[in-house]
Specification:
Radius of gyration of chain A: 28 Å
Number of helices of chain C: 24
Number of strands of chain A: 5
CATH topology of one domain in chain C: Dimethylsulfoxide Reductase, domain 2
Bound molecules: iron/sulfur cluster, FE2/S2 (inorganic) cluster
Distance between the termini of chain C: 62 Å
Largest sheet of chain C: 5 strands, mixed
Largest sheet of chain A: 3 strands, antiparallel
Structural class of chain C: alpha/beta
CATH class of the largest domain in chain A: Alpha Beta
Radius of gyration of chain C: 27 Å
Shape of chain C: globular
Structural class of chain A: alpha+beta
Number of strands of chain C: 35
Strand content of chain C: 15-25%
Number of domains of chain A: 2
CATH class of one domain in chain C: Alpha Beta
Strand order of the largest sheet of chain C: 2-1-5-3-4
CATH superfamily of one domain in chain C: Dimethylsulfoxide Reductase, domain 2
Strand content of chain A: 15-25%
Helix content of chain A: 25-40%
Number of helices of chain A: 7
Chains: A alpha+beta, B mainly alpha, C alpha/beta
CATH topology of the largest domain in chain A: Alpha-Beta Plaits
Distance between the termini of chain A: 61 Å
Order of helices and strands of chain A: HHHEHEEHEEHH
CATH architecture of one domain in chain C: 3-Layer(aba) Sandwich
Oligomer: heterotrimer
CATH architecture of the largest domain in chain A: 2-Layer Sandwich
């Protein structure tokens, strides 16, 4: 491992560039120095060393995937409440409103005294994965997931509510989202307290 | 020896050489990819078969089934024939190379050499050099500027390195006094490996061999960063595959020659010697891959400069010095 | 009225005496915060945000009348403190439901909270449990209610149903210590707020005429339409200003449209809204919006057929649910093809109006709903006001409520809603055919300098004896005290009466000899326009082309005829409304088929690209696109243009039927009228109002004759008979039943002649 790199990105190493040889003799000297000097053999040594160490960096992609940072913005997910399993989305429509590509559309209705989102769709062919929807969502319901394999036969590629919503049997696997649009760690400090009379 | 048996044996040998070395050429591509990958902290082919072993097969199927495109403006006969020259010359050259020491089973001696000629070295080098026509003609016939550039570079290479090849082994040959490869081998049993007596010749011959086989750092005929794919730009399918086979067979020839001439060959021909022989050959094959992983390639002008101004004088000096010593 | 000058924040404003400071400020573009004040209604004084300082004294701008020379400051340090505290109080326990609230950001509570920059909360009280109430067309969420009482006020002062009231909230009293620390008004306001919620005056559920106006005035999302609830955010809806197509009032409305669903991009109307400060809707306008003719296509063959049908026809039968432009095209077709134009309803109205004009000397009736609103003594004759013309009822009610007014309602069918308006309203339920007596009484009672020749013929002793006894006289005396502005509303019962000529003459005379301004309610949406544009014929022979009526070839906007035409929410055009105003209507929904103009272009010599190219050929040379359709901040109605009233040469009344005995009707009488929320087949097509009609009977009738809701009855008159189910309508009283016209499966008209009452035999089947 290159120690300089580890020390920090500010730690640049200046490369010394010598003047180009001009006369034949100088060129000859350079060739000799380079071929008989260390340079050629260092090269050979380095690659051999790496082969012997067998420190392979390849990620065998479809079987093996790199963990994504939580702020990565890929295909959206609709989350559920962890305790009750209810859908988080309250149907406020802010995501639909803010969407810069105008690719979210939803249908809402009343059901048993609650506002429910009967259908929700994102046209991934238009989505620019800007994350505004996740950021504006007051319920942390629409978030960016980690599905980035978006090959599709059509340019307009819709995901519907069922594609995005955590299936109820997989509720246990749903993690609290801490990526783009999540509550900031110091949120508690930023709000003023309100007297409550319970 | 009965002529019939001789012909039969020879035919079998030819067939074996053809089959084994075509297969080896393919296998070497696999090894090359793996070695290069490991040296670059990669895994190389992994998907087809266990550890990607069947990748060769997949490549083969691909090469055979790919459409064979011949450009409209190409000089068709030459375009078609050019790729054949390289493997043909390479395999012909192989006839002069002893692949293993002779093996005595009962009364019969099996010679793993098809043509035991007294001018073995010359024959092998000469026929190999014919292979250079292949890229040259391909480049000229393709009617493509990249191909043409590739062809022109072939000419440079041809002109420069054939001289060095010849001159470099002149000195050891002077010491041995024979052009027969078996003689050279046997000479070293008594006098020790020629590399110790002729280190400069060894280095020069190795360098020339790299150039002859178009390998890094002298792969300027088809260097993709400069001339797309050089002479092979317009080729596809199996025609392109032929260039490939030729190149790899040539690699083996050069490796065999280097071992035979400078590194003691198969010595006395015992089983151990035979194995050592093959191991040495494989080391040089590995060296081809190793250098490819480590070194950059040179420009045509650097190449010319190197041969004419450095290597050739060195070779000449080497010959003169050797001559003086011999006398 | 005298003019006064007041200075508000240094700006000199000229206003009428008696106007409130808030209205003066609004008219002059000066901003005073106010949540609970509703224009044209009495101030509720609930929010106290409108505090201003007038001549050094704190007053509520929505309540304080302007005095000459007054100097008003809209904000002082103390007032700012009060306002901020008031907004904090409003936010106490207000659920954080803005995300799903149907107000979707168009919320005055939000606005003022942000305006006052309420970032912290200093007050608290224990919350109470308040479940949502479903009141039919309306839902009430008490948790969101800020008890501004606008809903109560509008229902009382504007609509007249008085179906809402404040009810006790329950829960804890305020912490006494707040009294010391809080600004005075904020504390008082909270104290009141904390004691009340909104409830109905009609028991558990809301039983009213379902105008939905309370949902329109609610500044928060506490009252919303059940059908609309949670179906769309306000910001997604495109507001299209237009005119309601159901009755002659022609209210200004906004159609709010959006795509149908995710996959269906076609537009759909999600709701109708209005500007409650300036215009008031009835339930038919608010809920009866989706009567569009969907799915019509342009098929050249059908166009050809329509052209052929018109060319071979002798008569066009139509009604007045039609724009002026369409009417003009029909008239042009008449001229070109020599057709007859038959529209019985408009014909009656036209004849009636022309007799009135001859007597009064005015081409059009003198009053309008605004004069009604401004008057303080209103009489209505010959109209089932509540259902015939809801806004006339609102004006009637508004005049009585806001101007300390009084009124008399003459009609054979007793209406409990009218009784509920005020104790200053006298309802007199005379017999059918006696309308003229009531009008004569007005002429006698209020007439000045009536020539001898006329007054000699005005004998109403019988009528007086029957209905206007001593009680009435004493009450009338009381009611007439301090009354100076008089309005008379006459309605559709009169136009088809046998003695319509006499009636029209009396109405003309009332206009001439009394202080009353007269409104003659046009009997259908655009009757007033049609009669001025079309030369109507009394009848015409077959073959007939029906335009929204049945004919041998039928043009229908309901989509059930031979040729599709756009419904009134799918086309541009104009109406002439009850206020004699030419008002524009706009395209809310796209229409894919041919219009009348397309057909006419094949026949007429001067083809026009659009139907509205005819607009400038109407009463004034004004293009459709330059017709405004809005209200100004001052409340001024800036819609279309008003038609002038011309002078007409006067003639003397003839009274040919004078003093004829009214024909005696037996006990069973039926009336041709529609129930609340219905006007015609279009209102019935709307999904919220779709119902099937029947014989509407009062609860007493049901009890007396043992006819229950839903029971089949046979109704027979001398013109025919039909079978239908009985429907108990608790919005009428007495023994007269009515049959509706809105249901196309119930051909009630065939039982009647031109008069709306008829003797009938009703029997159980
Ligand atoms: S990521 Fe951006 S573009 Fe995509 S749906 Fe969300 S707001 Fe719209
Ligand atoms: S912003 Fe969040 S809660 Fe609101 S509609 Fe979108 S996903 Fe649902
Ligand atoms: S009424 Fe609705 S929008 Fe207004 S503050 Fe309350 S919840 Fe929010
Ligand atoms: S329901 Fe609405 S209009 Fe009525 S008092 Fe409550 S907030 Fe005001
Ligand atoms: S719908 Fe109309 S009549 Fe009914 S309570 Fe509301 S305002 Fe009053
Ligand atoms: S607006 Fe005057 S008290 Fe509310």
């Amino acid at each position: 491992m290159n120690k300089e790199v580890i020390k920090g990105s500010q730690n640049y190493i200046p490369v010394e560039i010598e003047d180009y040889p001009t006369t034949g003799w100088q060129k000859f000297k350079q060739v000799v120095r380079r071929s008989l000097g260390k340079e050629l053999f260092v090269g050979l040594w380095v690659v051999l060393r790496e082969m012997l160490k067998f420190n392979i960096h390849t990620v065998q992609y479809p079987e093996e995937v790199l963990p994504l940072p939580s702020r990565y913005r890929a295909v959206h997910k609709l989350l559920r409440l962890l305790e009750s399993g209810n859908e988080r989305c309250i149907g406020c429509g802010l995501c639909e409103k803010i969407c810069i590509a105008d690719c979210i559309r939803m249908e809402t209705k009343e059901e048993n005294g609650r506002k429910v989102v009967s259908e929700y769709s994102i046209n991934l062919g238009r989505c620019i994965f800007c994350g505004y929807c996740a950021e504006v969502c007051p319920e942390l319901a629409i978030v960016h997931g980690s599905r980035y394999e978006n090959a599709s036969e059509q340019r307009a590629h819709f995901v519907l509510k069922d594609d995005m919503l955590t299936p109820i049997d997989f509720l246990k696997e749903q993690k609290e989202f801490d990526g783009f649009g999540a509550v900031s760690p110091n949120a508690d400090k930023l709000i003023k307290k309100t007297p409550l009379a319970y | 020896m009965d002529l019939g048996i001789f012909i039969f044996q020879t035919l079998i040998k030819i067939l074996l050489v053809l089959l084994i070395f075509s297969a080896l050429a393919g296998f070497t591509t696999y090894i090359e990819r793996k070695v290069l990958a490991f040296m670059q902290r990669r895994l190389g082919p992994m998907y087809v078969g266990p550890f990607g072993l069947l990748q060769i097969l997949a490549d083969g199927i691909k090469l055979f089934t790919k459409e064979d495109i011949i450009p409209t403006n190409a000089i068709k006969p030459i375009f078609k024939v050019a790729p054949v020259i390289l493997p043909v010359s390479a395999f012909v050259a192989f006839t002069g190379v002893p692949i293993l020491p002779d093996i005595q089973i009962g009364d019969t001696t099996f010679q793993f050499l098809i043509v035991d000629s007294d001018v073995g070295v010359l024959f092998v080098l000469g026929v190999m050099a014919v292979g250079m026509f292949s890229p040259l003609l391909a480049g000229i016939a393709s009617s493509n500027k990249w191909s043409l550039l590739g062809g022109a570079r072939t000419a440079i290479q041809l002109l420069s390195f054939e001289v060095v090849t010849g001159l470099s082994i002149l000195a050891p040959l002077m010491l041995v006094g024979s052009l027969n490869l078996i003689d050279i081998n046997n000479y070293q049993i008594e006098h020790g490996w020629l590399i110790w007596q002729q280190p400069i010749a060894f280095v020069l011959f190795l360098i020339a061999g790299y150039a002859e086989t178009n390998r890094t750092p002298f792969d300027l005929l088809e260097h993709e960063a400069e001339v797309v794919s050089g002479y092979a730009t317009e080729y596809s399918g199996m025609r392109w595959g032929l260039f490939f086979i030729g190149e790899y067979v040539n690699m083996y020839i050069v490796s065999f020659l280097v071992v035979l001439i400078f590194l003691g060959g198969f010595g006395e021909g015992t089983l151990l010697d035979g194995l050592c022989y093959l191991a040495k050959v494989l080391f040089f094959i590995f060296l081809f891959l190793w250098t490819r992983a480590a070194w950059p390639h040179v420009r045509p002008d650097q190449l010319m400069w190197l041969t004419w101004k450095v290597l050739m004088p060195l070779a000449v000096i080497n010959i003169v010095v050797t001559g003086l010593l011999v006398i | 009225m005298a003019e006064v000058r007041v200075t508000i924040d240094g700006k000199e404003c000229i206003a009428q005496e008696g106007e409130t400071l808030l209205n003066i400020a609004r008219a002059n573009g000066i901003y005073i915060p106010a949540i609970c004040y509703l224009n044209r209604c009495s101030p509720t004084l609930a929010c106290r945000l409108c505090l201003v300082e007038a001549d050094g004294k704190q007053v509520y701008a929505c309540n304080a009348k302007a005095k000459d020379g007054m100097n008003v400051v809209t904000t002082t340090e103390n007032i700012a403190k009060e306002r901020r505290a008031i907004m904090e109080v409003y936010d106490v326990n207000h659920p954080l439901e803005c995300g799903i609230c149907d107000q979707s950001g168009e919320c005055e509570l939000q606005n003022y909270t942000l305006l006052e920059n309420v970032t912290e909360q200093h007050y608290a009280i224990r919350d109470t449990y308040k479940p949502v109430k479903n009141w039919g067309h309306i839902q009430y969420d008490p948790a969101l209610c800020i008890v501004c009482e606008k809903c109560v006020t509008v229902c009382k002062d504007m609509i007249g149903d008085t179906a809402l009231k404040t009810v006790p909230r329950g829960g804890d009293p305020l912490d006494k210590s707040y009294k010391e620390v809080m600004p005075k008004d904020a504390y008082a306001m909270w104290n009141k707020l904390n004691k009340s919620l909104i409830g109905t005056t009609t028991g558990e559920t809301l039983d009213c005429t379902s105008c939905g106006e309370c949902t329109a005035v609610c500044p928060v999302g506490a009252l919303v339409g059940t059908d609309f609830k949670w179906s769309s955010n306000a910001w997604e809806l495109q507001k299209i200003p237009s005119t309601c197509a159901h009755c002659s009032v022609g209210c200004q409305i906004y159609y709010e449209v959006k795509h149908i669903s995710i996959e269906n991009n076609d537009k759909k109307i999600y709701r109708v809204t209005n500007e409650p400060h300036f215009a008031t809707l009835c339930g038919a306008g608010r809920y009866g919006y989706d009567f569009e003719n969907r799915g019509a296509k342009k098929e050249p063959k059908s166009l050809e057929k329509a052209v052929q049908a018109l060319k071979s026809a002798k008569t066009i039968v139509f009604n007045s649910q039609i724009t002026n432009e369409e009417a003009l095209i029909l008239q042009k077709l008449k001229e070109k093809l020599g057709l007859k134009l038959v529209n019985p309803e408009a014909y009656q109205y036209k004849e009636f109006l022309s007799v009135y004009s001859k007597i009064s000397g005015k081409s059009l009736y003198s009053g309008d709903l605004n004069t009604v609103r401004k008057s303080n003594f209103v009489i209505s004759v010959g109209s089932a006001l509540k259902t015939d013309s809801p806004n006339s009822r609102y004006a009637f009610n508004n005049a009585i409520k806001m101007n300390k007014g009084a009124g008399i309602y003459f009609h054979p069918v007793k209406d409990p809603i009218i009784d509920g308006l005020s104790k200053n309203v006298i309802q007199i339920n005379h017999q059918p055919y006696e309308e003229i007596e009531a009008l004569k009484w007005i002429l006698i009672q209020f007439g000045k300098d009536i020539p001898e020749t006329i007054s000699a013929k005005l004998d109403i002793s019988q009528f007086q004896e029957k209905y206007l006894g001593e009680d009435f006289q004493t009450k009338l005396e009381k009611l007439l005290k301090k009354k100076d502005k008089f309005s008379l509303i006459v309605g559709a019962d009169l136009y088809g009466a046998k003695n319509w000529q006499d009636i029209a003459e009396v109405v003309g005379l009332i206009d001439l000899y009394t202080d009353f301004s007269v409104v003659i309610i046009p009997s259908d949406t655009n009757t007033l326009g049609v009669i001025q544009i079309c030369e109507l014929d009394r009848s015409g022979e077959a073959p007939r082309v029906g335009y929204n009526e049945k004919g041998d070839f039928t043009f229908s906007a309901l989509g059930d005829g031979d040729f599709d035409i756009p419904a009134l929410n799918q086309q541009e055009g104009t109406f002439v409304n009850i206020d004699k105003r030419v008002v524009p209507l706009n395209v809310a929904l796209p229409y894919g088929g041919y219009t009348l103009n397309d057909v006419a272009n094949e026949i007429l010599d001067n083809p026009k690209q659009w139907t509205i190219d005819y607009t400038s050929e109407l009463f004034k040379k004004v293009d459709f696109d330059s017709l405004p359709n809005e209200f100004l901040n001052s409340g001024e109605e800036n819609r279309g243009y008003i038609l002038d009233i011309d002078e007409v040469e006067r003639e003397e009344p003839t009274f040919h039927l004078a003093n004829n005995e009214p024909p005696k009707l037996g006990s069973s009488v039926i009336y041709l009228a529609n129930p609340v929320l219905q006007f015609n087949r279009f209102t019935n097509k709307a999904h919220q109002l779709s119902e099937s009609g029947g014989l509407y009977i009062s609860p007493e009738y049901s009890e007396k004759f043992g006819i229950k809701e839903g029971q089949l009855v046979r109704i027979a008159t001398k013109y025919g008979s039909l079978k239908t189910k009985a429907i108990v309508d608790n919005k009428i009283v007495g023994e007269i039943c009515y049959l509706p016209t809105f249901d196309k499966h119930l051909n009630a008209r065939k039982l009647f002649d031109s008069y709306r009452f008829i003797q009938a035999k009703i029997s159980k089947v």
